[in-house]
């Protein structure tokens, strides 16, 4: 969406604006400047909305599936694992004789609150770890993308779905909520959640690192191609 679809949408904006203006002239729409500007804006937004939907379908990058599919594929396993460990922690249980780090028993909550706090930190780290593998130029590019999103939202006149922002907001709230729940949950569940969160951090970091590496290689190839074509164009100009 960010690398291909949205730039393509930006490129067709001037063409859409010109096309809408010609249609208004052919339909002989009359009025003062403010009225004509408003009509032109509304019609352009409608055309761009249709074009955006078509472009997203073309590149298979609709925002809604990106938000819905990950929880639907992961939550059932996570919930079933939590329920299973909760049942196994009910008395009588062999978890009474099992301990781990600050957990004196896996059947009762962590009395020191260490693992619940670690869980909250890991959940928050999972949200923010994407910025760790970026350099200054890439962070600047991310800010520019956010500014373009804000500009597009202002032009459309209503909020647009931002998968990354939605997921980050949800995960930040979840990090606090998980601390509260883990503080009263059996140690077996807390340990399971901490293990799952640790795996999630590693998974997110690896995926982000591979994505950043792919972008850097693509950018380097583009710069190299531009550098090789420069002497040819310069010779032609001479």
From TrEMBL:
Membrane association type: Multi-pass membrane protein
Residue ranges of every copy of the Membrane insertase YidC/Oxa/ALB C-terminal domain listed in the record: 14-207
Gene Ontology BP terms: mitochondrial respiratory chain complex IV assembly; protein insertion into mitochondrial inner membrane from matrix
Record bears the keyword Transport: no
Residue ranges crossing the lipid bilayer per the database entry: 67-90, 113-134, 165-185
Keyword Manganese among record annotations: no
GO CC terms in record: mitochondrial inner membrane
Main location class: membrane
Family under the similarity heading: Belongs to the OXA1/ALB3/YidC family.
PANTHER family according to UniProt: CYTOCHROME C OXIDASE ASSEMBLY PROTEIN COX18, MITOCHONDRIAL, OXA1
Protein name: Membrane insertase YidC/Oxa/ALB C-terminal domain-containing protein
């Amino acid at each position: 969406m960010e690398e291909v679809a949205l730039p393509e949408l930006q490129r067709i904006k001037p063409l859409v604006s010109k096309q809408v203006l010609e249609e208004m002239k052919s339909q002989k729409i009359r009025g003062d400047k403010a009225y004509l500007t408003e009509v032109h804006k509304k019609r352009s937004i409608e055309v761009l909305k249709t074009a955006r939907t078509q472009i997203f379908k073309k590149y298979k990058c609709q925002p809604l599936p990106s938000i819905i599919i990950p929880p639907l594929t992961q939550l059932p396993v996570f919930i079933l694992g939590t329920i299973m460990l909760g049942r196994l922690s009910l008395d009588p249980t062999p978890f009474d004789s099992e301990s781990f780090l600050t957990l004196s028993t896996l059947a009762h909550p962590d009395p020191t609150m260490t693992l619940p706090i670690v869980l909250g930190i890991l959940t928050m780290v999972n949200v923010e770890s994407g910025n760790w593998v970026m350099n200054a130029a890439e962070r600047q590019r991310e800010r520019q993308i956010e500014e373009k999103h804000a500009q597009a939202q202002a032009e459309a006149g209503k909020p647009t779905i931002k998968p990354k922002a939605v997921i980050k907001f949800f995960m930040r709230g979840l990090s606090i909520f998980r601390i509260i729940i883990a503080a009263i949950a059996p140690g077996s569940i807390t340990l399971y959640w901490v293990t799952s969160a640790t795996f999630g951090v590693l998974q997110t970091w690896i995926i982000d690192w591979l994505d950043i590496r792919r972008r850097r290689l693509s950018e380097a190839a583009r710069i190299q191609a531009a550098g090789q074509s420069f002497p040819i164009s310069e010779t032609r100009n001479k």
